[in-house]
Amino acid sequence: MTAAESSKRPPLISVVMPAYNEEDTLGITFQRLEQTFADTSCEWELILVNDGSEDRTLQQATSYRPTTFRMVVVDLSRHFGKEAALSAGLRAASGDAVIPLDADLQDPPELLLEMIARWEKGAEVVVAKRSDRISDSWGKRVSARLFYRTFNMISDIHIPENVGDFRLMDRAVVDTINDLPENRRFMKGLFAWAGFRTEEMEYVRPARAAGQTKFNAFRLMGLAVEGVTSFSTAPLRLVTYVGGSVAIAAILYGTFIVMRTLVFGIDLPGFASVVSLVAFLSGIQLLGLGVVGEYVGRTYIESKSRPPYVIRKVYRSDAE
Ligand code: UDP
Ligand code: MG
Fold first, then answer.
1. What are the subcellular locations of this protein (predicted)?
2. ipTM for this prediction
């Protein structure tokens, strides 16, 4: 194919959708996507990754007969989590541009049109930024804000606030991410790490179309720790500083006591202060040990180089 011919070919867009127990939403999501792309000249494919769903998600996806697009269903061997499912989807996508999209219609498919338009004008990444978080609970809003602030303060990369996985990425960006060998994959961080010319567009995130969120406070906390330890060693440095400061304070206090004893003679020490000091110090030591342990654990798991996910089977159906 000559360059002129290839530039005439309509671009292929891959929509990557991780799905875990989404039987209630898939039908409407497919329809909305199909309607959206009906207005464009793009060719598109849907990569649905079944993240070990226990309901009929897989049957629904494989029995759907697309008429206007190509459907690839990647069935993982068990539940691996969204980050792994998304990685599997990105590797299976063959489009010139790739768009991860939640299965629950919280990422409105209509926005794809503007993303694609901006990409055609030269953006390599177009991220969708939530203009507010009113569809979230108070607790989630506060903890999210705290996470982004802390993360951006202590790590070398910058994750823009209120931006999720919903974005368009050029093939070059996707190739970069696919080539990263690490198997604990905090995608938001990897996306930001990859860089490239990025544009933002704002949107209002609607509530879930049906079903329940798959992330409770505990899992979000895990994801936050995962994110920080993946992209920063600042907590280790912090432990060193805290340890150093406490040691200096202890030396000063010790000197003070010796001097006081020399000058004023021996007085009766208070046990309460000794006990609370010991408790405080052992608390700090355990905290430090925990932080170090978190990093050692990560290194241990990475060193085994197990793949982040296992694929049971890939189903393909072309537009009829
Ligand atoms: N998801 C997944 N594996 C998981 C959790 C979620 O594949 O372990 C998918 C889920 O099916 C959905 C997307 O990730 O398509 C976002 O999940 P959810 O809507 O529960 O997250 P929230 O919108 O509450 O952040
Ligand atoms: Mg959701």
1. Membrane
2. 0.92
